[in-house]
Amino acid sequence: MVIMKAMGIESDQEVVQMIGRDPRYGALLLPSIQECVEENVYTQQQALEYLETKVKRFSFSYGSVEKEGRALSIIRDVFLANVLVHDLHFRPKCIYVAVILRRMMEAVLNKDAIDDKDYVGNKRLELSGQMISLLFEDLFKTMNSEVKKSTDNLLEKSSRSSKLDISQHLARDIITHGLERAISTGNWDVKRFKMHRKGMTQVVLRLSFIATVGHMTRILPQFEKSRKVSGPRALQPSQWGMLCPCDTPEGEACGLVKNLSLMTHVTTDDEEGPLISLCHSLGVEDLELLSGEELHAPNSFLVMFNGLILGKHRKPQHFATALRKLRRAGIIGEFVSVFVNEKQKCIYIASDGGRVCRPLVIADKGISRVKEHHMKELKVGIRTFNDFLRDGLIEYLDVNEQNNALIALYEGEAVPETTHIEIEPFTILGVCAGLIPFPHHNQSPRNTYQCAMGKQAMGNIAYNQLCRMDSLLYLLVYPQRPLLTTRTIELVGYDKLGAGQNATVAVMSYSGYDIEDAIVMNKSSLDRGFGRCIVTKKLTAINQKYANNTMDRIIRPQRVGRDAERMQILDDDGLAAPGEIIRPYDIYINKQSPINKEISVHSPAGLPDSAYKSAIQTYKGPRGETAVVDRVALTSDKDNNLCIKFLIRHTRRPELGDKFSSRHGQKGVCGTIIQQEDFPFSERGICPDLIMNPHGFPSRMTIGKMIELLGGKAGVSCGRFHYGSAFGEPSGHADRVEVISETLVKHGFSYSGKDFIYSGITGSPLQAYIFMGPIYYQKLKHMVLDKMHARASGPRVMLTRQPTEGRSRDGGLRLGEMERDCLIAYGASMLIYERLMVSSDPFEVQVCRACGLLGYYNYKLKAGICSTCKNGDNISTMKLPYACKLLFQELQSMNIVPRLKLAEA
Amino acid sequence: MDGVVSYQRFPKIKIREVKDDYLKFELRETDASMANALRRVMISEVPTIAIDLVEIEVNSSVLNDEFIAHRLGLIPLTSDRAMSMRFSRDCDACDGDGQCEYCSVEFQLSVRCDQDQTLDVTSQDLISLDPSVVPVDVAARSSSTGFDATENRGIIIVKLRRGQELRLRAIARKGIGKDHAKWSPAATVTFMYEPDIHINEDMMESLSLEDKRNWIESSPTKVFDIDPSTHQVVVVDPEAYTYDDEVIKKAEAMGKPGLVEIYAKETDFIFTVESTGAIKSSQLVLNAIQVLKQKLDAVRLTEDTEEADEQFGELGAHMRGG
């Protein structure tokens, strides 16, 4: 109320009128009015003075602010800054406040009126353009002030020799550097807007084609992930068709990180001016002309444009249909949304950027505007999607406007009230979920798992995959197109850049090496190329230039002598040659760097050989494995140094422990590899490529996988790719099980997909019929070769003399606290002693029994001496972990004396 | 050991169909162990020749060296010589590096694309230094039987574009399918038990023609049919029966359990052998029997010796009747 008064509405009655004369509102307003009386605030002047006391005083002052008071400037510039104030004309702001207050009180009185903050229509996506523009604004202003400062400095000088040349003060790459820094680090630090955000840029994942596409549709939340809230993580009904319901990571970011659906479009800013004038000419009455009383008149609707109150309209439905007609005719932008909210008596018009919207087929009285001849034209290629849009057959609706539409899922289900028809139901899923055949038959978390796993699958990455220089690249040798495809697969091109192979799978138990999701693989299949993959790694060497004009050099390898063997793969130019087989510890670049890098040398080129020391780089790969140098590229880095990149290729066949997965979130490792003759076979001679344990099915409930098997089997026997698009059965984008079964029977299989199988070991028939057929299997990037690690003795950390940590440093395996607790409880004291000291960091120390401190061993006298007591009389020798000795010494260095008291053991 | 009943049997083979790469025969009067042993040997122990060592001189094709080497290895080579060849690991003539005529065959391949169309490098471009060991499709072309020569363009190794070149030397060696599937001469070896189908004629006659038709339709494969003249259900092709039990279930569903009884004859097998072309399918079976004999001989020879104990441990003692 004080604020309303400060904005010039001094009459309480007018305020109440503006908010609405409902007595319930009055009751809620009463305390505020009372407060005004108590504080003796009646006029605008009094209100401002009152507010002035509440405003924090800043020690520094702005000239103009002081004159009119900080309170006024805050009300004018900060308070509801989106409502512009011209010449202290506060009325629009008052109306805005009144509408806010009314909504608030409505929410207090009626819980249903509370807005849902997770509602997708209330959300905006921040796009790269907006981010860059913010950054640019900041940098540009910084540059301007810099230029101003330097020109001022120059102009202040009394004697200037030359004319002022502003271009001299410009540039200095402030903007370029600022943008480069922000984009390369991902840290958006814009002080002007109090923005400090990290991870705003990401390097696009090139692990697989799907990972790339999936990464580009990702939406990251703004608030931190650590909060334990369920609301924003839950599946929102309003995200239907806009955000994929399946594709979200597991764990802390679950439900917060989302992915766009297949047809989602994110809007960009549209020009407001013409739209506002158009609204006015369509009959929106400006609020300037209305009294407070009329603000909430029941027979007219408030018109909101991009969050601003534009005015009122008496015929909301007419207005909305008129705008929509204009949009369909292409006169206003296709992404402008018009939403009539009956409950709030508001019309929302939005043309701002960051709204998600999706295309829908327009229907008139339940009859689709898209007719057969349109589809024929599309097939022939005369018509494109944009033509549909331009001709007003299809339009984009955002989440809000969808609430005004009655959308039929299929044309046949349309009723006369229907305004729109879905294009295809499977488009509610995103790219990653779209790869799953029959996802609507799976338990929902399985689809989510597959969305995460599809990104780890090996296969093709891009058409230029063999020309790329990725630091790590996984490729499949013989990638295949899935036998059971979906429409999404065809739309995104997964059938051309696949990441998996169609494996004949028998669902049965075999050998016991298939428990806990392990799979049994056929050795002959592996011999013939199943699951074979290529891993390429990039090794980089830089021919560094130094400050004293000296630089590294690459020299001809030694063909005889000590290092000759390790230099076998080098060409005469000192670089590894493409096509050479490289083994661990082989030298791939015979580089030397100058010993003297700081002090300037008069002839940098003519340094003698003795002035260089060897700086060879050796290949560190898994022991016993050989790789091949694929390519060598010579480039230059950003400091213009010669940069040599080696691509090392390693072809791997699947081995025990490699990870595989079907497209239904069913991952498993290879449990054993078995000869083909031991594998079961059918009368037709079909022998599976892999065997999967049937226990994978009951608890996972992946019916989609079973249907995939059936469909794949039918597909192989009849020679037609079968489809399994999500929710595709009614529209013919997925084959029905009945039809698949008929196909199977026609080709002499059982309708159930089960086969009569003989054991390969004994030759006798198996007791049960075995569910067998092709399933698309993905090889995941987790391979045993990259992970396996064991060590006996090896490197130790310098400081503590304990074994190093981690596989990359050939580290030891830690016997941790909990394991230690177990041993204590069990009483295995010798084992603890052995693990924690003998095998870790034993150290022999000389302890003085008199002072309890550590002494040293004098090798000349062959006796231990205590440096504190200055004698060797009471010295005992004992073993201690080196870390313990280190602790004692560190304690001593901070004036704490640890003393050992020895007793006979 | 006298007085023990002899379980020796004399299996009979009846050949039904022979083609170069396909053989169907009956194996009678034996049991699953015998049939399965034969199958297993055919898949994994009949030796053939396949490219095992590749020295690449120039490779500017899109596929990398290992990729091409793998593809070369999988090309079936005519291996009629394989049985008489030596394994390179126990070859006396060379030091086991597999470069002598007794244990290896050398191939050359040198292709360069100088035209604008893509050039297919196929198995026909592999030049063998031994005319008896060539890629199977080349052999088929020269003998011009079975294959349609115009259709047969050879097995594609890699496709080259203008300026790309592939030059290599490959050494083929003898090996068995157990080591690597490329040495397996068998594309498919499978057998089935011969089904023994008994139709209960009396019960069948109690069915109407419609019911008979329905019953016949219930089998996914065409096992039964109706004699057009007598309207009797007859077994057309017992081997088409896949032990799917569909007809039995159907009979039960029709309320006529026991309408038909189907047993698998445990002594009779029908074998289907498809060869990769490395050796003729008939030869494959003969070689398999020979290999199997050799294996049995190896067991029999060590039977009574002390070595058997070392070699087989308790099993050796057991074999000697201990």
From TrEMBL, chain A:
Tree of life domain: Eukaryota
Main location: nucleus
Entry EC number(s): 2.7.7.6
One GO BP: megagametogenesis
Annotated compartments: Nucleus
Transmembrane segments: none
Signal peptide location: none
Domain DNA-directed RNA polymerase subunit 2 hybrid-binding: 432-809
Purpose: DNA-dependent RNA polymerase catalyzes the transcription of DNA into RNA using the four ribonucleoside triphosphates as substrates.
Entry's family note: Belongs to the RNA polymerase beta chain family.
Name under which the protein is recorded: DNA-directed RNA polymerase subunit beta
Organism expressing this protein natively: Stephania cephalantha
From TrEMBL, chain B:
Biological process, per Gene Ontology: transcription by RNA polymerase II
Residues annotated as domain DNA-directed RNA polymerase RpoA/D/Rpb3-type: 22-302
A Pfam family: RNA_pol_L
Stored InterPro entries: DNA-dir_RNA_pol_30-40kDasu_CS, DNA-dir_RNA_pol_insert, DNA-dir_RNA_pol_RpoA/D/Rpb3, RBP11-like, RNAP_Rpo3/Rpb3/RPAC1, RNApol_insert_sf, Rpo3/RPB3_RNA_Pol_subunit
Domain of life assignment: Eukaryota
Keyword Cell cycle on entry: no
Cellular location(s): Nucleus
Gene3D superfamilies found in the cross-reference section: DNA-directed RNA polymerase, insert domain (2.170.120.12), RNA polymerase, RBP11-like subunit (3.30.1360.10)
Gene Ontology cellular-component annotations: RNA polymerase II, core complex; RNA polymerase IV complex; RNA polymerase V complex
Family matches, as SUPFAM superfamilies: Insert subdomain of RNA polymerase alpha subunit, RBP11-like subunits of RNA polymerase
Keyword set includes Chloroplast: no
Molecular functions per Gene Ontology: DNA binding; DNA-directed RNA polymerase activity; protein dimerization activity
PANTHER family linked to this entry: DNA-DIRECTED RNA POLYMERASE, DNA-DIRECTED RNA POLYMERASE II SUBUNIT RPB3
NCBIfam families per UniProt: PRK00783.1
Family the entry assigns: Belongs to the archaeal Rpo3/eukaryotic RPB3 RNA polymerase subunit family.
HAMAP family, A to Z: RNApol_arch_Rpo3
Protein name as it appears in the record: DNA-directed RNA polymerase RpoA/D/Rpb3-type domain-containing protein
Protein source organism: Stephania cephalantha
